[in-house]
Amino acid sequence: MISRSSTSLYSLCRSFYLPKRSFASNQELFEKAQADLKTLKEEPDVDVKLQMYALFKQATVGDVQGSRPGMMDFAGRAKFDAWSKIKGISKDEAQAQYAKLVQSLLGEQTPSAPPGTAPMGLQPVEGLDVSVEGKAFQIKFNRPKKFNAITLDMYKGIIAALKASNQDKSTSITVITGTGNFFCSGNDLSNFAKAASASKEEVKEMAETAAEVLKEYIQAYIDHEKPLICLINGP
Predict the structure, then answer these.
(1) Which phi and psi (to 5°) does residue 32 adopt?
(2) Do 26-109 and 128-231 fold alike per CATH?
(3) What residue ranges do the domains of the chain occupy?
(4) In angstroms, rounded to a whole number, what is the distance separating the alpha carbons of residues 104 and 145?
(5) CATH code for the part of the protein at 128-231
(6) How many Å apart are CA 113 and CA 18, to the nearest integer?
(7) Could you tell me which residues come within 8 angstroms of residue 6 by beta carbon, excluding any fewer than 6 positions away?
């Protein structure tokens, strides 16, 4: 029979010799999430970005400060409102929620095609898969989480792919399709996001660049020599 005193001694010994589990603090998870955020392949939606902004401010500053921006400051007003919605949440809880949100974004990333799989020496473009399927040269939008919205880099990638298809003698048709339940939702709004905070000179330069890309994009279709088939897999 083990006495109470011997039981206490046994417990004391266990506390010294058994390995202790270590758990990362919310501060450590928060700092790691900020580093992990830089590895995201796709820019989050506007609503998610606002949520992340609000949680970051709450985690580092606390409750919302200052006055609400005016009607013409759309970005500032949206950020202020998002921050106001989580007023009262502790910094520790905000850190935990921020880390959890970043981890969920990392888990939703769509695997991209491994480098070197694109035909005709094409450079891989995030959100765009180019491959040869039998006699078909296939261009596929691969951003299902963004409803296959097209970024500026994707426009450039499509131009290059259409030109490469013209030169590829092993295929007889070109196919454009999308991944998931949407064919394409049009322009990615992130194409215009930088314009909100850019100077007049920068906006002018961005507009000129976009116009030139659009001109080349349309011309690439006009100059395309093969039958072009769109496999519409949704809206």
Answers:
(1) -65, -40
(2) no
(3) 26-109, 128-231
(4) 13
(5) 3.90.226.10
(6) 46
(7) none
Name the strand (E) or helix (H) holding 15.
helix 4-17
CA distances from 141 to 39, 110, 168, 201 (A): 21, 12, 20, 32
CB count in 10 Å sphere of residue 142: 20
CA-to-CA dists, residue 71 to 68, 75, 76, 124, 195, angstroms: 9, 10, 9, 41, 18
Separation CA 18–CA 33 (nearest Å): 31
Backbone dihedral angles phi then psi of residue 68, each to the nearest 5 degrees: -70, 130
**CATH 1.20.80.10, domain 26-109, yes or no:** yes
pTM for the predicted model, two decimal places: 0.56
Choose among 109, 156, 150, 157: nearest CA to 131.
Answer: 157
- Are 13 and 5 in contact by the 8 Å Cβ rule? The answer is no
Structure tokens at 125: 């473009």
**Structure token pair of residue 197:** 């905070």
Whether pLDDT at 2 is above 90: no
Q: Tokens at residue 40, please?
A: 């995201």
pLDDT digit string (tens) for 34-57?
A: 998 888 877 787 888 899 999 999
Tens digits of residue pLDDT in 55-101: 999 999 999 999 999 988 888 899 999 999 999 999 999 999 999 99
Phi, psi values for residue 67, rounded to 5°: -105, 160
